[in-house]
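ok so for the tutorial part 2 we go from a plain amino acid sequence to predicted structure tokens. step 1 is just haveing the sequence, like this:
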Amino acid sequence: MEVYDESKLRHSLASAGAEPQTINYIVSEIDELLYDGISTQKLYREAFRLLKQRSDRTAGRYKLKKALLNLGPTGYPFEKFAGELLSRLGYETKVGQIIEGNCVSHEVDVVAQKDDSFFIVECKFHNRKNHKCNVQVPLYIQARFEDIERKLNYQPDHKQKKHHGWIITNTRFTQDAVQYANCIDLRLLSWDYPKNNGLKDLIGRVNLHPITCLSSLSSNEKKKLLEREVVFCKQLKEDGELLAAVGIRDQRKKRILQESREISNS
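step 2 — the prediction. this is what the tokens look like for a chain of 266 residues:
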């Protein structure tokens, strides 16, 4: 239980791109709905409903956290998502790589390079919003990273490179996990960590929104597209025939493509 904080609602709406007039309207409507014990989930659903009446674009962005949770049930779409996000931030990336360690070989979710830095990235996907990565996750990832780094240090093209481990999750880390990672210089990226540079912030900056943001697609259609490795709204913008491939007819394609453009355009 916690006290309702209007500023959090205003901040989340503003982050989605809602105009001040729309924010004031939604906040006033939510104020009328409040009662002791109301769940945050109910507040979210009502805010989303009101926002969608005003703008599909901001409503789609507002449901970003839920959209990331729906990139399942396997973790591969999230790995592809993380790889593309890093690519748009200026990294050279490869998804799903097998890298030899000093003792054993390892399947690495994403390999990223930027300048003289080389990153071994592990993606931790969860479909429950309250799930947190505890300290055991960075402990395990650090052991894998150290095995890989020992092997890389013998390779001539890595002599001048700095090696880093990195964990990216769509939910959050526990405080112990953050403390341990900071102590050993292991990078972390979660929904809201680091502050002002978490997933929600970076996605907004590069306009990389997943198809699970789209209200015009059914759950089954999203599942079919994800199975075809269609993860991003921008993919639909670039190739409208992807929708036809999963049985979506012309009369709906226009509506879906319009929403895709609205959500992924700055």
